Amino acid sequence: MDPRRPRALAAVAVLLGATLSGCTGDGSGGGPGAAGLGDPYFPRLGNGGYDVRHYALTLDYEPGTGRLTGTADITARATQTLDAFNLDLTGLTVHSATVDGEPAAVRRSDGELTLRPAGDVAGGATFRTVVRYSGAPATITDAEGAREGWLRTADGAVALGEPTGSTAWFPGNHHPSDKATYTVTVTVPRGLSAVSNGEPAPPRTSGDRTTFTWRSTEPMASYLATLAIGRYDTRTSRTPDGIPVHTAARGNPALLGEIPELLAWEAGKFGPYPFSSTGAIVDPLIDVRYALETQSRPFFDKNTLDAPTLVHELAHQWYGDSVSPKSWRDMWLNESFATYAEWLYAEEFQDTPVGESFAEAFAEPGNWAFPPADPPSAGDLSDPPVYYRGAMVLHKVRQAVGDETFFAVLRGWPARYRHANASTEDFVRYVEEEAGEDLTDLWDVWLYGEDRPTGPSA
Asked: How far is CA 424 from CA 199, 421, 442, in A?
């Protein structure tokens, strides 16, 4: 996400509930999966008892009425014997659900959709759930007025998911720790485009409707899934290494032509690009005051497409998208690396040394409101310390271990946890393994310390 537009998330936490319900079961008999994964900021986000492998979403959208009709075909593996399990879903009307082809009982409560199969799902079994639903998807607004979820425009809509907005347009296990592959098939009025993550199939037009299909074959956290519908100028090119570049924009912003060069520069710093394609979506009809690192296709609203922000969102493809947080407490790992990428870019292309960016961040009182690895609440997850103090932590690591080891960490970290999830503890352990030394004092002061150190020592 664009660090210059932090958002408060407390209202979303209230929306999703503050306590757990249900139980995990012990795997010895049929029991319900948990109605939440106990995330420190969104306890009821995500669901226990299963691991999603693939989402196949078949959607039909009518911009004039704002009505979405959908079928979510979800393949998952049971991690315990299940006589019931939950999916996260905000709003929308569920018309039917089946588990392995048999009708399942459906119950709704707040943002939880509980399904009770006709028979228990055995622990370790792969099972298929199909949910049919429709309605006008919700726009989720947080306490500071920032919006996510389903954002309507005059001719379409854009779906943005961080941290909980994906619950507004499809049912699923919406915690970043449960990543899956996706196929998104969308039918819209002829003349509009529908753009999502991953690779496109050729569109199919029948009468006055056109169907678009996108496939994401690398695992993706649900908050990184996106869908943009509208009258876009869509283009496909390739990087010098042959990576497809899919862009969709109203107009043709010149900066999008720099994606191949920027991606090559970042690959030189961070290692091979982790996805099968790249690109961007730019929609100036949306005014949410942030950009977002939607996987393989970052989104930019009316005011956020500039070179530093493009560098930031592309860097997230390594840090945040390929290596995703185990919980929302680990969000600083996403934002610190993306912010440090901006500092490296400013040094090489804008004559601003990294030390100068560090000193500027060090001098800003707002960056010391709390430790980056321990935000006080959900409302603080996108505040400046997560970005700028997080980047300062990385710079202190660089000073402590030297450039050779530090830049090896920049490449090795996304390689070690490629397409997986990682926590702050994983990062601390990894850095110390690579450095061959104990950095407890550094972590205590810069990552977890409550007070600003007496001098920046940049």
From this structure: 32, 11, 14
Nearest-angstrom CA–CA distance, 105 and 118: 8
C-beta separation of 16 from 45 below 8 A:
yes
CA 176 to chain centroid, in Å, comes to 7
CA dist 178 → 189, 292, 361 (Å)? 33, 19, 34
* DSSP helix/strand/coil, 107: strand
Beta carbons of 260 and 237 less than 8 angstroms apart: yes
Two structure tokens written together for 15: 């929306």
CA–CA distances in Å: residue 432 to residues 187, 234, 409, 426, 440: 50, 45, 10, 10, 9
Q: How many whole angstroms separate alpha carbon 156 and alpha carbon 141? A: 19
Among the listed residues 155, 175, 153, 173, the one whose alpha carbon sits nearest the alpha carbon of residue 163? 175
**Cα 35 from chain centre:** 21
Record the tokens describing residue 151, joined without a space.
């954002």
Q: Who's near 365: CB < 8 A, 6+ residues apart?
A: none
pLDDT tens track for 406-439: 999 999 999 999 999 999 999 999 999 999 999 9
pTM of the model: 0.94
Torsion (CA) 9, 12, 18, 22 in degrees, nearest 10? -130
By the 8 A CB rule, do 214 and 232 touch? no
How far apart (Å, rounded) are the C-alpha atoms in residues 203 and 290? 30
The separation between the first and the last C-alpha atoms of the chain, rounded to the nearest angstrom, is 26
